[in-house]
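A protein record pairs a chain with a discrete description of its three-dimensional fold. The following entry can be read in just this way.
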Amino acid sequence: MLNTKLYLSGYTSDLLRGTDEPRPWDLAKVILTKANAQTRMLDIGCGDARKLIPLAGQVHHISAMEPSHVMRALAVNKISAAKINNISLIAGRAKQLPFSDHSFDVVTCILSTWDSQEIYRVLTPGGWFINETIGCEDKLEFKKAFGKDMEGNWRGQLISVDNNTRMHRYKRDLLQQHFEKIAITNGFWNTYYTEQGLLQLCEFTPTISGFDRDKDRYIFNDITQKLVTEKGIKIKQNRLLIIAKKPQSAFND
């Protein structure tokens, strides 16, 4: 997601998250299957740290990395309000993690960019990488309604690729870095949005390229009327869950 003032000011809104039906996995529980009270954990792109707070009491320490000083300030407030003292906030970027080799037992990355070589480097031998990323079929019916731009490119995020190709690329990339026990799961569920929440989603995330609340109002109204239910505007979500292990034998990497 673009690190712009608009994104930074809006992405923390609860409205743009909508109300989920049960997800195919509980990400916190998935992470905790690979962690214990001694675990040193790194989260790449922590945002306001809301997803880390439930994990803090189950691990030794969490290094929460976030390049945006605005988001780090929001994270400080959430961590302080939760009275948590084992989460450290750090500035940094995925392509050059500011940590020494073999620093973490678990590395997580949720809806953020990541670099497999850097993750492999900072993981301890036997450590785990856990990633949740947007799938190609995410919000597909909604996104297709906005068509293509003047250059003939789909305006909807990731429409031009498919999950099988993307999953193959992820697996190949991880194998090239010598990860093992690679598992990639393709998951779907529905989320119900209010009109205001869905507008915020379009404005504060890259879901629809170049979204303009006024210029796109007709398209937005038309597709939301088709998708509206008694529970709200029904949008299909798609995520990929990626889990991979650094070999226990990788002591000399």
Notes: Residues 163-176 form the longest helix (14 residues).
